[in-house]
């Protein structure tokens, strides 16, 4: 494999290009995969196209500054990202244990990135190159740009910008911000004067530098000491997410001011097409060796059709990171990428996904195209100004399916079940089931109790029931046996043990079992994290029950009640609620669409939702059981039935030594 197909990732590759040094060094906590699903590759390719010499330093040894010096001092700046995940999420489970696997490292090996990687990498760069401008990016820095609740230390931490001693944070997807900063530095502008770039955060010790029209948050000291101040700060910041009307946001921290400029303008269709038309090799760098990067295998033959999500789910980071405005690629750009995939030697005919955060939001837009103060386009009801066009998505899928060497085009990222009824394309689900579902369709109802769903900012359970009926009808029309894979969550604020028992009963009655469980993790600067920390919804002021400690463990176990490891934890709870049958594995059903409806009919016998007066104390997939054969009829009586098997010679010898005569029953 030629290293010329990649951005330089070793000093030898830099020398092979005839460079005396690099302009920009990108340090990442992920293995280097030159694929548009990996942020460091996207930013690196954009800077390369803009004329800069870029090198990638992937998963360096952080025990000293020496590995950071291997490319020499960058001429402009160093960019730092923890990777595609927050490093604490990548390294640790919600219970604080070290993860046994890292999907973004070669071979899935854990331990290749430090906890709080953005801070550690920035500190090592400061040691290696004093005075070098440092730009933080990626989801870890984006979601920690102001004072935030840190679940793993159970404290309120100040902005990561100050902890890392960096010059800027480029929050969100950051293409425009990073290229703008690079061009300004290249023109000779001083780092301290680059303070007007949208989509960036910077700090100053001079109040006169703060923009005059700024929104001031309570100080870091206030939000650390007062939960009401924390919620007030969250509410003020949350209202400044729309790039069309947002103002600068400022938070005093000790003797400095942390300033967030308004979000970057969303990319136009032409601009986002240019990003995904960059010359990605779509392969792992040779430095990964023969070991595959699990995350790269998942997306090897997938296409990102759009960005952004207007759902505004309380626990989700998408609105804060990618934005609420959906930015869709053109159909021609998608088809061209499919052609490149089809030309890969390893391609076997199946495009595994053409989607995004929510596949059926592709091509959606707002009819108002102006100021909007709604926190979500979909909650509590789908906004009447949201124009959905499932036909555009189907058109892109069918065009991709006509590309030579392509046998199947599937939607693997999942859809919003609450949008199907509102879509102008009435046959969207029918066509999806007919040609573009590879056996399983992912949806995220998250829970079945409406009180919990309201706090999550998710659609009511009746919407999911309606969707299941539509899905069954589409399966019958397509004459296919397809499965729903619903995602459920445990431990979210507002969830009681009784709520989780109802969910466990729902799954058990339908024959479902949870292969994977995601216990709720309070991600920094999400609405759910604010509720978890303060016990109140910062947007409504409502007091919310927050499960913690032993109760949180019980709620997690209730998604896998038949797992014998959970028996001692669950037995007292299930005895009190009269649901000990949940400890036995459920009867297996042949089709998820069938047994989901079976569960719906069973709901009448479930306990009603109650307040938690008695507290018995990353995605979380609830998958259908595999199809099983019909049970065999009872065997006829034979002369061998009931006889003991003949013991082996070794077993017989051991029994004789112990004095066993073989006559006991």
Any overview of this molecule?
This protein is α/β, with parallel strands linked by helices and 665 residues long. The protein has three domains: 3-203, Rossmann fold, CATH 3.40.50; 301-438, 2-Layer Sandwich (Transcription Regulator spoIIAA); 442-626, no CATH class. Strands 2-1-3-4-7-8-11-10-9 form a nine-stranded mixed sheet, with helices on both faces. The N and C termini lie far apart (67 Å).
Question: What features would you highlight for this structure?
Answer:
Rossmann fold; single chain; globular; 23 helices; 9-stranded mixed beta sheet; alpha/beta; disordered C terminus
**CATH hierarchy: architecture of the largest domain:** 3-Layer(aba) Sandwich
Q: Mean pLDDT score, rounded? A: 88
What is the general shape?
Answer: globular
Number of strands: 24
What is the domain total for the residues?
A: 3
Could you describe the largest sheet, including whether it forms a barrel? 9 strands, mixed
Q: Hey, roughly how much beta strand do the residues contain?
A: 5-15%
- Model regions low in confidence, pLDDT < 50 over at least 5 residues: 590-647, 658-665
Strand order across the biggest sheet? 2-1-3-4-7-8-11-10-9
User: Considering the protein shown, what is the CATH homologous superfamily of the largest domain?
Assistant: Cobalamin-binding domain
Treating each run of at least 4 consecutive H or I residues as one helix, how many helices?
23
> How much helical structure, as a percent, in the residues?
25-40%
User: What's the CATH topology name of the largest domain?
Assistant: Rossmann fold
